[in-house]
Amino acid sequence: MGQQRALFIGGTGIISTACSREAVRQGLEVTVLNRGETSHRTVPDGVESLRADVRDPAAVRAAVGDREFDVVADFLAFTPEHVQQDLDLFRGRTGQYVFISSASAYQTPPARLPVTESTPLRNPYWEYSRNKIACEDLLVREYRDRAFPMTIVRPSHTYDPTLVPFDGGWTVVERMRQGREVVVPGDGTSLWTLTHHEDFARAFVGLLCRQDALGEAFHITSHEAPTWNEIYAAMAAAAGVEPRLVHIASDAIAAADPDLGAGLLGDKSHSMVFDNSKVRQLVPGWAAQVSFRQGAREIVAWHDEDAARRAVDPRLDALFDALVEAYRPRPLR
Length: 333
Ligand SMILES: NC(=O)c1ccc[n+]([C@@H]2O[C@H](COP(=O)([O-])OP(=O)(O)OC[C@H]3O[C@@H](n4cnc5c(N)ncnc54)[C@H](OP(=O)(O)O)[C@@H]3O)[C@@H](O)[C@H]2O)c1
Prior knowledge:
Helix content is 40%, strand content 14%. It starts with a strand and ends in a 6-residue tail after the last helix. The protein is an alpha/beta fold. Strand 5, helix 4 and strand 6 (150-155) form a beta-alpha-beta unit. It has 12 helices and 11 strands. It binds NADP nicotinamide-adenine-dinucleotide phosphate. NADP nicotinamide-adenine-dinucleotide phosphate (NAP) is lined by residues 10-16, 34-38, 53-55, 75-76, 100, 102, 155, 157-158.
């Protein structure tokens, strides 16, 4: 059998870069399709690059030509229209189509933990998640009615060294380094699963070109679920400082900033712990290996390499000041 051919739509993103590298490492012939605008993440030598804006169907069609692939994975499909574009282009031309969904599609807040792939999908709080559910519904229908060879993969919060995994990003780390208070949602005691992109990639590539993964959905996450207090503490330790945490209820943050609020109330304020037994059945021996303490050191090191990466968002900085001022615990008068 020749080398198996994979097309990754995206391919130089937070998650997909690690998947491209791991797929090459595991012997696949990898093609990525993107605009060629992301330069800070690179794919290994030997990966073929196709250039197109994925929102321009004619350009994607021209770039792909009449090629066939053993697997096509789309990291950039967010609505049923995007998935339909893939169905129209790749039906009959790929042995497996992998849709990158999101674990935020699971019932929010979850009625039972840990979350398994049987946990219902329902997120009334976040449009992004509802759109991912609609994409999954379309693909499930296509699998049932027309045997379309799809696999659904639901990443949960997955980071690489470029991503500070809390609201406010590097602005929060800079505040910590300046000895200023930072806002932690809730009591900081809810559990949050953070997955290193290389851990994700090793399991992900194990699901590719697999007949026994067709029609199925999987999540792939770390096995550790630190509290938000621990996550802020790990980032502070990596940044070489003691953090000053101010705990503020997520609904109070939402009232001050609806965008931050949607991501909290629809996602990050609820404890999320995952059971990864299903992916382990297909990828025996896989286990997440990177602790967030280690991941935090990689994130800080990457930002410390270049001042341009340590930009502060003045709007968020001012918002955090206002929130801290309003909600810093104090005796009642
Ligand atoms: N990270 C998480 O925590 C998380 C959690 C759940 C689900 N997800 C899902 O994971 C997927 C994101 O994957 P990722 O993290 O690898 O991606 P990402 O970091 O958002 O990277 C974007 C990638 O897509 C390319 N791209 C962006 N816009 C494009 C366009 N219009 N046309 C063609 N290429 C384009 C970029 O390259 P160019 O800039 O060069 O075009 C880059 O390769 C999404 O489906 C998201 O819903 C992520």
